[in-house]
Structures are given as structure tokens and as C-alpha cells.
Design brief:
This protein has 142 residues and is α/β, with parallel strands linked by helices. The chain has helices at residues 47-57, 74-82, 97-116, and strands at 11-15, 18-22, 64-67, 87-92, 124-128. A hairpin with a 2-residue loop joins strand 1 (11-15) and strand 2 (18-22).
Length: 142
């Protein structure tokens, strides 16, 4: 077991005869966990969690994937890097967050191209919107 260069961080709490295990949802400050983000907040998901959400979703060719409260954009970014045959949309209500999301998108795509030598990541459309009135045609997304 390598306690310094670990792959997964798991927290445990013992109370009486009960053990509660969990994984952190906010990123630590190590560079290992900044692979697809440059900017993040207190509620940002780890890229590994966003990837797992995407994998569980079983994204198919031609799917439209929308994260209506994307924050730093981790879910659409991670999904677009791994499932390149779908379309990705992220929306965020807060105008202060959207520029940060664009920084993360640019950083992630640049990193992807540098590491793989490919420019085939799926496009990610990011926009400012209010979840109660998203900028999508009615019935275009399930």
C-alpha cells in the first residue's frame, strides 16, 4: 500500500459497531487531482467521480448529455474526454462561474491534446442559464 501516491482516497469513521466509509467530493490540493480543472470551488467534484457518473450513464453514440448546474464543468469535461461520440452541454446560473468553467474546459482540452496527441475530444458547449428556463428546445433532451 502506497500512502503517498494513492489512487483512491477513502475515509472511514467507526462509531460503536458501525463503520461508515466515504470518498471526498471536493478536490485535495495535489496536482494529481487537477487533471481536468484549473479552477474549482468548495463543491467541485473530483474528476474521477465525474468520470464514474459518466461511465454509469452508459453514454452512447449520438447521445446529448446535459449538466444543467455544471459549476466548474467537471462532468461534461470528463465525459467529453472519454466518450467522444456524444454532444455535451453545461449550464450555470451564476455569471461569476461561467468564465471559470471556460478556463477548465480550455485547460482540459489542451491537456488531453498534449497527452494523447489527438484533437478528437467531443465538443462541449457551455452557457449561462437558469435551470428553470434552460436554453434548450422543449423535448430535445430527456
Amino acid at each position: 500500500v502506497d500512502l503517498v501516491n494513492y489512487d483512491v482516497e477513502v475515509w472511514g469513521h467507526v462509531r460503536g459497531s458501525h463503520l461508515i466509509l466515504g470518498i471526498p467530493l471536493s478536490p485535495p490540493t495535489t496536482k494529481l487531482h487537477l487533471r481536468s480543472r484549473r479552477v474549482f470551488g468548495e463543491t467541485s467534484l473530483l474528476p474521477s467521480i465525474a468520470y464514474t457518473f459518466s461511465r454509469i450513464s452508459k453514454i452512447q453514440v449520438g447521445d446529448i448529455v446535459m449538466d444543467p448546474m455544471c459549476g466548474g464543468g467537471t462532468i461534461p469535461i470528463e465525459a467529453a474526454l472519454s466518450w467522444r461520440s456524444a454532444s455535451y452541454f453545461g449550464g450555470e446560473k451564476y455569471k461569476e462561474t461561467v468564465p471559470k468553467t471556460l478556463i477548465n474546459k480550455t485547460f482540459a482540452l489542451s491537456n488531453y491534446e498534449e497527452k494523447t496527441g489527438r484533437k478528437d475530444a467531443a465538443p462541449i458547449e457551455l452557457m449561462r442559464w437558469d435551470l428553470t428556463a434552460p436554453a434548450m428546445r422543449r423535448g430535445s433532451v430527456d
